[in-house]
Amino acid sequence: MTYTQLAVLGVLAAVLVDTVLLRTWLLRRRTYWTAYAIVLFFQLVTNGIFTGLDIVRYDPDAILGPRIAFAPVEDLLFGWAMITTTLSTWTWLGRRGLRT
Amino acid sequence: MRHLTYLAVLAGCLLGTLPLEIGLRTRVYARWRRWLLALAPTVVVFVIWDLYAIARGHWTYDRAQLTGILLPGGLPLDELLFFVVTPTCAILAFEAVRAVRGWEVGDE
Fold first, then answer.
1. pLDDT grade, residue A23 (50/70/90)?
2. Is residue A18 included in any domain, yes or no?
3. Which of B9, B37, B107 is the closest to A50 by Cβ?
4. Between B79 and A99, where is the model more confident?
5. Residue B32 vs residues A46, A70, B40, B60, B91: alpha-carbon distances, Å
6. Is A57 close to B97, i.e. CB distance below 8 A?
7. What are the tens digits of pLDDT across the range A43-96?
8. Angle at A13 between CA A7 and CA A14, to 5 degrees
């Protein structure tokens, strides 16, 4: 599979984790979207450094092509899936009573 | 020193978000069991993704800007740390928004 296909799958999986698997439904929470907006800004900065300095290079055949702040658009999907999965798990653990 | 470039970016992320834990009392590191358990699935899944992407050549790393320490499968140590640092910063941002705005998130 290409990075593009995996990134779309990652987003779908993250949505399922939040809504069906853990049922945390952060996708309906203002706290989540506000936090994501903040994280997105800093992701563009750090992703820009990683790709701008050529620390990471992408195979042109594995991505669509469009880039934002040097990074392929797929990175935004990758990051969103990673952050959403983490925050859903964090919230789920709290709901289950893990508070330490 | 160039081999520490990647690590320096990660360190910047941790240092930049540290005031949230102290100033806003996000209590993410303080609740270290919950913090580590929240990271675990993310680290496992995204390391597998990364290993697949490395094997398929989706992306490559500039060895000169990494520590040079490679884990099984050719995973750079720097990259493993990325999967710890980024989710940690996200949780800190999440708890910071909660601390400031007080909106419910469903675990109250």
1. very high
2. yes
3. B9
4. B79
5. 25, 35, 12, 33, 12
6. no
7. 999 999 999 999 999 999 999 999 998 889 999 999 999 999 999 999 999 999
8. 90
Contact yes or no for A53 and B65 at CB 8 A: yes
Report CA-CA distances (Å) from B42 to A56, A70, A95, B17, B92: 21, 25, 18, 20, 16
Helix (H) or strand (E) run with residue A56 in it: strand A56-58
B93 has a chain A CB within 8 A of its CB: yes
Domain range for residue A77? 3-90
B92-to-A8, A11, A49, A59 alpha-carbon distances in Å: 26, 22, 22, 33
CB of B41 within 8 Å of a chain A CB? The answer is yes
Contact between chains at A62 and B39 (C-beta distance less than 8 A): no
Flag whether A100 is in a domain.
Answer: no
Query: With an 8 Å Cβ cutoff, are A35 and B101 in contact?
Result: no
ipTM surpasses cut 0.90: yes
Tell me the per-residue pLDDT of A5-16, one tens digit each, with 9 for 90 and over.
999 999 999 999
In a domain, A95, yes or no: no
